[in-house]
Write a structure and sequence with these properties.
By secondary structure, the protein is of the alpha+beta class. It is built from 4 helices and 8 strands; from the N terminus they run ββααβββαβαββ. A hairpin with a 2-residue loop joins β3 and β4 (77-87). The protein binds coenzyme A.
Length: 180
Amino acid sequence: MNRSVKFKLKNGKIITIRRVRGTDYDAMMKFFDKFVKGKGAKFTTQYPGQPKKDKEKSIALYNNPNNLFLGAWDGDELIGESTITRVGVDNPYLQGRTGITGTIILDKYLSNGLGSQFKKYIIKWARENGVQRLEAEVYHTNIRSLGNLIKAGYNIIGIKHNVAFIDGQWLNNYILEKVL
Ligand SMILES: CC(C)(COP(=O)(O)OP(=O)(O)OC[C@H]1O[C@@H](n2cnc3c(N)ncnc32)[C@H](O)[C@@H]1OP(=O)(O)O)[C@@H](O)C(=O)NCCC(=O)NCCS
């Protein structure tokens, strides 16, 4: 996805979606700082006080043509990001056929259709870039994300037990897959 597109959220707000580039590093770090302070972070591996992501590595990751990092902007503010990372592109056995996907959106913008819109672009990019299966992992309590993924055609194919201890409870991870 090379151009930016406008998208109208269910609440009527118009936002812009485009590829995150290396030059967006500072905006991404600000976004993570906000995200970890919100409720959504407890459904992810992000946490308050986490070390800042390495600048060089992050820029290489954003600019790598084997990944797609999409950002959603409300004006100048980055309010959501969605990623697909191809696994084993150089490995002749794996051939980069699997794409690991994930999305995080600031609390204020949840359940407004943005997650579904992100998924459409991610799936389109996957099809155009030789990805044959998508994979995602979600805590078993993350009903919104499970709903979002199942609506996009993912199926639950496995479970990892007791992967994280959050609010006094051990959480399981569902592994989800969508074969393209
Ligand atoms: C998970 C997430 C990416 C979904 O994006 P979203 O913009 O909130 O979801 P959408 O508005 O696009 O909803 C898509 C579908 O998800 C499901 N969904 C959304 N909100 C839901 C809720 N509160 N409860 C149950 N299902 C819900 C519905 O099936 C919905 O389809 P519908 O609107 O036709 O009913 C987003 O909520 C998020 O960033 N959450 C915090 C971080 C996180 O959990 N990330 C994923 C795990 S790493």
